[in-house]
């Protein structure tokens, strides 16, 4: 509670978002003097050029949801910013369903532990899309021993994904954990999903934060420290919560993406499905990213 109060006081004193250090951050916003953090440039970016550096970011990441990743069309870098756009295309003359496309930067490189930070301005459309900064591993279905971890996901932040216009919903951000364990069976049948909205796992994996600002109106800094024992989340340099690190020890890639949410997508049969009947026939909306940073601890093991 003291950390939350401190954060609100800082925001008030600064009369706006905390921008932190300059040079698009040389150290984590939360770093104490003398802490031995080392940046990992294979998962960090200032977006200072005229195009995405496809040597570190995958140009065609795997599709897995109610929309397609189209980085050629929906990812752009200019004026020191990354823009990721989600589009709904108008139906064609034959009446087929509208297609949703979006963009995602996913790093080739992966790592287990460190401090992950990005400065993000949310997309103006609400409800319907969720700007996200997250970490995730590959799914390893060869893990057949009951309880073995097949998949790890740490959501540093998911913005504006509440699906109704209730007062205050636009300010809610989610900072969650997902995992797949093995139930002892082979292949897909052996996946035991541990989701944060499941009442059995909510206390251990779900974290909701009500921000003192509208994330669509300005940039804010979202961070997460992943250690062997704890996973800790930060907004504008202030801790907002932490969870025990029970399962999240697999190498994870860094991802920045703009995902589809209700009313344009519905959750059915354990996956998101597109709802082409919702909303206008066509639209486009974009999130902006100033920088993304990954540091690893260079001192003695903790």
Task: Write a structural description.
By secondary structure, the chain is mainly beta. The protein has a domain of 203 residues: Jelly Rolls. It contains 3 helices and 20 strands. Strands 1, 2, 3, 4, 5, 7, 14, 15, 16 and 20 form a 10-stranded mixed β-sheet that branches.
Layout of SSEs?
Elements: H1 2-14, E1 37-39, E2 68-69, H2 71-74, E3 75-78, E4 81-88, E5 100-102, E6 104-111, E7 114-121, E8 129-136, E9 149-159, E10 172-174, E11 177-182, E12 191-194, H3 202-205, E13 208-210, E14 220-226, E15 230-235, E16 238-244, E17 252-260, E18 265-268, E19 271-274, E20 283-297
Parallel strand pairs: 2-5
Antiparallel strand pairs: 1-20, 3-4, 4-5, 4-20, 6-17, 7-14, 7-20, 8-9, 8-17, 9-10, 9-11, 10-13, 11-12, 14-15, 15-16, 18-19
Brief rundown of the structure:
By secondary structure, the chain is mainly β. The chain is built from 3 helices and 20 strands.
Q: Count of DSSP helices?
A: 3
Reported for the largest beta sheet, the result is: 10 strands, mixed
Strand content: 35-45%
Mean pLDDT: 89
> Whole-number radius of gyration?
19 Å
Which architecture of the domain at 44-93 and 102-143 and 150-171 and 209-297 per CATH?
A: Sandwich
Helical amount: under 10%
* CATH structural class of the domain at 44-93 and 102-143 and 150-171 and 209-297: Mainly Beta
The helix-strand sequence is: HEEHEEEEEEEEEEHEEEEEEEE
What's the number of extended β-strand segments?
Answer: 20
